[in-house]
Amino acid sequence: MGTSSRYSPPWGDASIIGVAGGSGSGKTSLALAIVASLNLPWVVIMSMDSFYKPLTPAQSKKAFSNDYDFDSPEAIDFDILVDRLRDIKQGKVAEIPVYSFEKHARVEETTTIYSPHVLILEGIFALHDPRVLELLDLKIFAEADSDLCLSRRLVRDIKERGRDIEGCIKQWFDFVKPNFHKYVAPQREIADVIVPRGIENKVAIAMLSDSIQKTLHRKSTLHQQELRRLGQIAEES
Ligand code: C5P
Q1: What stretch of H or E contains 70?
Q2: Could you confirm whether domain 15-212 is CATH 3.40.50.880?
Q3: Which atom of ligand 1 is nearest to the CA of 49?
Q4: Which one, 25, 38, 151, 165, has the greatest CB density within 10 A?
Q5: 124: Cβ below 6 Å to ligand 1?
Q6: How far is CA 47 from CA 1, 118, 124, 226, in A?
Q7: 157-183 average pLDDT score
Q8: Which letter does DSSP use for residue 52 in this model?
Q9: Running DSSP on this structure, what letter comes out for residue 48?
Q10: Alpha carbons 222 and 228: distance in angstroms, whole number
Q11: Beta strand 43-47 with 93-100: parallel, antiparallel or unpaired?
């Protein structure tokens, strides 16, 4: 990692990376591939699914008949997300809700994130809210063909999320597809990097990994300078 062999994790300045993209575009796989290529401890993936708002009984009824719009930013509790991201950025411990796609609701338990060096935030609206954008060190948009997205989503929703084929197709054409064009695709404009072909794109993954490592090194150098200024570590000989 550069000229200095010393690495001082800047606990008070976690690197946060946003990975946006359509449903089924491979955001999670891309995030996992970045984690694997970084080969560092303290890297955590946080899904925006955790921040879907609780539904009223009437909304829940609609959700079970595939009539509720989960693809508008309105469906996400950005206030809590921003709160948690700010805590993580500052090295604080953060309690994260756990979401059940089968129940369309948060479950009782939460999960705890302990001050990672790198946090990857993945979700269809990861690059949507200006307060989130302010906290991001790197903004990625995962690009994928819409046929591929739909087929991946059908398989996943039926196998893992307790859905049926008719409901999935209805939800796709009523909400997922139109809102992709309205809200998800415009995030390309704000992305630093657009990654086509997901995890097949080894060159992009290596470049992203390299860029994240450089950011960590830069933060570490600044942190060491600050510690030296405060007299908490000795000058390097
Ligand atoms: O994992 P992925 O990015 O595909 O998750 C986002 C998708 O989850 C949205 O497109 C939304 O339609 C879907 N969703 C759902 N049921 C919920 C919450 C979200 O089908 N209860």
Answers
A1: none
A2: no
A3: 5
A4: 25
A5: yes
A6: 29, 14, 10, 33
A7: 97
A8: B
A9: G
A10: 10
A11: unpaired
